[in-house]
Amino acid sequence: MVAVVLLSTTMQRNGDPKKLAKLLAYALGRTPDEFGLVPDGDGFVKIKEFLKAVNEEEGWGFVRRAAIDEILCAVTSPPIEVLEDRIRAVDREHLPERRYEPDPPALLYTCVRRRAYPHTLKKGIGPMGRGHVVLASTEDLALKLGHRFDPKPVLLTVNTSIAHDLGCLFMRASERLLLSRYIPEGGFRGPALPKEKKAAQGREATGTPDKTSERSRTPGSYFPDLSEPPLPRHRTKKERRRDEVAWKSERRRKSRRKTI
Fold first, then answer.
1. What's this model's pTM, rounded to 2 decimal places?
2. Into which CATH architecture does domain 2-89 fall?
3. Which of 36, 143, 191, 247 is the one with CA 20 to 30 A from 43?
4. Which of 169, 210, 209, 173 is nearest to 187 (CA)?
């Protein structure tokens, strides 16, 4: 009884589950690339990733996992299947087949997390846990995908000809999306790192302290170089008297040697 009440409340809040079921069937079974989705070989996508894509659509920001469960319970012959944390369409006849793409577009686009960008410049573009790098045919689509995992992703442009010469192969996932296992350094370009970040990385690598930045934080102050020899210490009167007595004694000894 409680479950029925909860289902009824959800339906009233989110609308007709049949309409949502049609959207899910369309997104998962016909044009997943329109939503920036890449189903695996069995047609599944992760529910978390799928929900992010659906929530971007106008009027469907309310969709949560509970709405998917509601479709499975309330719709006769639901057009979707759920297996643990993955979802797929029942009818997958219209899904594009993955195939090797011998003639990809000259330029493709992808995004990486901003904090990972310096590493990417040195090591290349990795799959980020997906098993493949997702490459979009347009900058807008690449940024749309990038904003799903980073509020300010870094957009990268892949030169497919150069990447191919470096050993990359491309798979056609759909009209708008291609896949590659890995894009090595030199096969893509992106924005330059800020100069201050480069300088900081160089100092960290060498272990050299940043004296310039230290001075800039307190303008008008003087920071001595502690590596220089310290200034002579001022001697006391007693120390000067002792040195004078030792000097006179040494002079007398030298005078006696000359006399002998």
1. 0.67
2. Orthogonal Bundle (1.10)
3. 143
4. 169
